[in-house]
């Protein structure tokens, strides 16, 4: 008997030690206990007649069985979606798929969940499991895949304010379809976003509004290595049931990788090829080698590009650049191959007719100095350079 009493005393002392181990003074403990009591009472009263499977949506707006002229309708259920986070994770151009970390706060009013704070010791908000309250429909449209961060071990929580405003925070990874025009690749930018709508209710019963929240991170941190985010905002698009709310991000590719690994090498390969072609024009075999090497280098670059691009009808500017570069070098080869014949013809003409006289004039001397092949080389280098510059316009 004594032993069990001692055990009881010890265990209560021990349990108290656990519950109030965070250095609560007796006054604090009393306040907390009062709060727990009030909250318990509030919970019981609030959920006594509440069934979370019964919707809060008022459906009599268009009922034929109600005298519409004489009925005072309550306001329609309004859901406020506030953007919590929209961070770009990944862009797969080939599949036109863009993945975002997409978090939102949903808030709506469930008039059944109201109370007077003064009756419950001043409590103005409580936290409940989401399963305990009715949740309205929120559908993410045009999505490949949505992952919600939830598990049975950690049920998601909602809050309820005394005026019936109920809300919850949701984190998702949303992979959405985004039409991408990659014509300007790698200097392309796109507008992609997550669209939210509802299918269940009528437009006069329910409404979703999107609001811009405080993301808490600068735009510079919302992109990934390849893409930077230049704008995040909200938008509305008409749809057959109410408007579609869109959280949009404008993204812009960091072109550095392609500039350094494709554009500049292609430019210099062409630059050197053209020089190699126009000096020592008598060696035909060497010209063919230069041409072949150039074709191989350019084809290799095109293969790198092909792996990254969607196979759209419009060929991207960068591919056009590489192809035009190839055409410029091919044309140079053709010109170089006929150049010796022109030379021969010129020499013959010079010798026959006004050769001696022309060389005497200043202009003639200038022409002689400025060999035809160097002029042509300049022209092809210019073409190569213009082709390069046009990419950045
Ligand atoms: C309601 O009012 C409209 C015009 O405001 C009228 O045409 C209609 O007959 C009324 N309906 C009833 C049931 O009184
Ligand atoms: C939704 O947002 C509007 C405007 O910001 C506000 O007036 C309204 O009270 C909000 N509704 C809810 C249920 O939070
Ligand atoms: C309900 O109360 C909360 C907290 O006091 C407030 O932020 C919110 O705007 C109120 N909502 C409405 C619809 O009155």
Automatic annotation (TrEMBL):
Q: Which GO terms describe its molecular function?
A: extracellular ligand-gated monoatomic ion channel activity; transmembrane signaling receptor activity
Q: Which SUPFAM superfamilies match?
A: Neurotransmitter-gated ion-channel transmembrane pore, Nicotinic receptor ligand binding domain-like
> Which Pfam families is this protein grouped with?
Neur_chan_LBD, Neur_chan_memb
Ranges for domain Neurotransmitter-gated ion-channel ligand-binding: 75-211
The protein's topology relative to the membrane is: Multi-pass membrane protein
Q: Which residues form the Neurotransmitter-gated ion-channel transmembrane domain?
A: 263-365
Task: Keywords in alphabetical order, please.
Answer: Membrane, Signal, Transmembrane, Transmembrane helix
The subcellular location is: Membrane
What do the Gene Ontology cellular component annotations say? membrane
List membrane-spanning regions.
257-281, 288-307, 319-342, 372-392
- Identify the stretch annotated as signal peptide in this record: 1-21
What is the name listed in the Swiss-Prot or TrEMBL entry for this protein?
A: Neur_chan_LBD domain-containing protein
């Amino acid at each position: 008997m004594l032993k069990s009493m001692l055990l009881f005393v010890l265990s209560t002392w021990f349990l108290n030690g656990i519950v109030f181990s965070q250095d609560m003074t007796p006054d604090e403990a009393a306040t907390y206990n009062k709060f727990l009591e009030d909250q318990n009472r509030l919970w019981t009263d609030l959920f006594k007649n509440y069934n979370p499977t019964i919707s809060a949506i008022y459906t009599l707006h268009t009922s034929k069985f109600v005298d519409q002229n004489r009925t005072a309708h309550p306001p329609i259920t309004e859901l406020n979606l506030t953007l919590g986070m929209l961070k770009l994770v990944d862009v797969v151009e080939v599949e036109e798929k863009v993945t975002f970390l997409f978090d939102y706060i949903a808030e709506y009013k469930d008039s059944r969940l109201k109370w007077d704070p003064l009756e419950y010791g001043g409590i103005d908000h409580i936290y409940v499991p989401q399963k305990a309250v009715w949740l309205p429909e929120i559908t993410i449209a045009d999505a490949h895949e949505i992952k919600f961060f939830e598990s049975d071990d950690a049920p998601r929580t909602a809050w309820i304010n005394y005026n019936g405003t109920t809300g919850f925070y949701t984190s998702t990874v949303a992979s959405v379809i985004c039409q991408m025009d990659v014509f300007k690749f790698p200097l392309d930018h796109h507008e992609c976003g997550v669209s939210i709508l509802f299918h269940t209710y009528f437009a006069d019963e329910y409404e979703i509004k999107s609001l811009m929240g405080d993301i808490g991170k600068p735009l510079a941190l919302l992109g990934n290595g390849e893409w930077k985010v230049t704008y995040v905002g909200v938008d509305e698009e008409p749809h057959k049931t109410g408007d579609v709310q869109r959280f949009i991000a404008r993204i812009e590719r960091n072109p550095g990788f392609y500039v350094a690994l494709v554009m500049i090498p292609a430019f210099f390969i062409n630059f050197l090829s053209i020089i190699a072609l126009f000096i020592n024009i008598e060696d035909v075999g060497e010209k063919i080698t230069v041409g072949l090497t150039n074709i191989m280098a350019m084809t290799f670059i095109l293969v790198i590009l092909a792996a990254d691009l969607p196979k759209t009808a419009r060929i991207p500017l960068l591919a056009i650049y590489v192809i035009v570069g190839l055409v410029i070098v091919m044309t140079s080869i053709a010109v170089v191959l006929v150049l010796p014949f022109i030379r021969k013809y010129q020499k013959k003409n010079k010798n026959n007719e006004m050769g001696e006289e022309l060389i005497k004039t200043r202009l003639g001397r200038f022409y002689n100095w400025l060999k035809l092949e160097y002029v042509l080389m300049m022209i092809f280098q210019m073409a190569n350079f213009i082709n390069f510059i046009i990419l950045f316009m």
